[in-house]
Amino acid sequence: MWSHICCGSSEGHLLKVQQFLLDNNWTSSDIAQFQDSLNWTCFPGRYLETLLRQVSNGHIAYFPAMKAFVNLPTENELSFTAEEYSDISGNATAWALVTEGQPGRHMTFSPGCLPAEMRSLSELLGPYGMKFLSESLMWHISSQVAELKKLVVENMDILTQMRTSFDKPDQMVALFKKLSSVDSVLKRMTIIGVILSFRSLAQEALRDVLSHHIPFLVSSVEDFKDHIPRETDLKVAMNVYELSSAAGLPCEIDPALVVALSSQKSDNISPEEEYKIACLLMVFVAVSLPTLASNVMSQYSPAIEGHCNNIHCLAKAVNQIAAALFTIHKGSIEDRLKEFLALASSSLLKIGQESDKVATRNRESVYLLLDMIVQESPFLTMDLLESCFPYVLLRNAYHAVYKQSVASSA
């Protein structure tokens, strides 16, 4: 959509933008804001309400292979096409997804020429507008984290015991049954991952646009970021990350997320207690992962390089939330992610011994989340993963999901 506007403006006549916006279900207030020198404060709300809310409702999925959000088939057709608002690669076009209780079946993509919408949006808003968009997204993430912390507090005693009992299978099973709001934790973390995935597209688009307009400056910032010594003071590193983020470059620690989550500090809770809650949040997510295997929508699709219920976005959520929280609380990000990996691996290995076919129907697809989390992380390595989770299980899991995908499309 935004590329149409950009094309029009480059030709000097905006192609009757007002009528175009009316045809695409924009309200009069939206149009008024657009006419008011492209007031970019209206865009974050539009994306959050129209696009990302539909993602959380299960109507839209993020497809990593296409770098775009795409509509899923539902009983009630959506009034807009998601990829027209979120495509970055220019490859998201007409596609077909035929499912009868089997997500990812008969999925085909046809090469086309949809313009890169996120780049066009970045061109329209500019660096300040994209920064405002990012800050709005982070505010929504911080509200989700606040709710997650409440759930952790409700289960604090149980999670504290689970944190030190991961090598005692029988005790872990008994403790897990006492946990409440497991599904809510996973859903909120998935929503966070979806928002971060959208933000990643926006940042990549901003970087591409700035690289076109000011290539020397962007390359200088990138070179500066890539050569920060590991022993650099955290405050200095965060200043560099903030500069890099403003240029659309990805960072090990997201400065915007750190700022958003820092505002949650409460005078009624000691720093030690806040740190403990952050640690137990990671424990809660780790021990909850096996429940995803029973969800029919958790099936991994090689065609989209993800899952139709967006649980692949958990990889980004786990890494970025951990990095931000333990930067704020001055803890070791690497140590806490190692602990997460050990707990998650131990929990997922248990479902390999389950005899209930319904509870383990997408076991292999959920195993792949561990690989995604490590691939996404600048703090974890495959050697570390193999010390917790046998690589042969991952290899067999990839083989199984690809074989299942071929059989489904036959």
UniProtKB/TrEMBL annotation:
Coiled coil: none annotated. One of its GO terms (biological process) is cell migration. InterPro entries: Nck-associated_protein-1. It comes from the Eukaryota. The keyword Transmembrane helix applies. It is found in: Cell projection, Lamellipodium membrane. GO terms for cellular component: lamellipodium membrane; SCAR complex. Keywords: Cell membrane, Cell projection, Membrane, Transmembrane, Transmembrane helix. It is a single-pass membrane protein. Pfam families: Nckap1 (PF09735). Its main location: membrane. Belongs to the HEM-1/HEM-2 family. This is Nck-associated protein 1. It comes from Paramormyrops kingsleyae.
